[in-house]
User: Fold this.
Amino acid sequence: MLALAMPALGAKFYKWVDEDGVTHYDTKPPAGQPASEEVRTYHSASSDQDEAVKRLEERRAAEAQAEEAARQRREEQRRIEENPGEVSEERCAKHRENLRILENKPIVRVENPETGEMEVIDQARRERMLEKARAAVEFCEK
Assistant:
């Protein structure tokens, strides 16, 4: 009975203050922030802290993914502004390659954006992709 009443060891958290004076807490020490201190937490078995930490980590991972996607869009926009002909030719080459694959390979796999796994496309999707690829290649040749 006494063992159940004792709090279990909790997760490690790190605390630091940024250059603007804002205090932050996280489950990982901040990169490039040597003045962080480890904070121990203790919680009972009924605590929902682990679930809250999991949600926080998932949210941060989603934010990091969105930030990376935005960075890639900005980089692509910069490339288009600096070398529109080069970017256009790269895209046309990719369309031609996609068309070649769709026309010649009996089985075509694409990455599922939600799971990251490769999936075999069905014939209906293949036909839609072929139609789009042919239109893109035709546009490139004009």
Remarks:
- The radius of gyration is 25 Å.
- The first strand starts at residue 8 and ends at 17.
- The longest helix spans residues 49-82.
- Residues 1-9 have pLDDT under 50 and may be disordered.
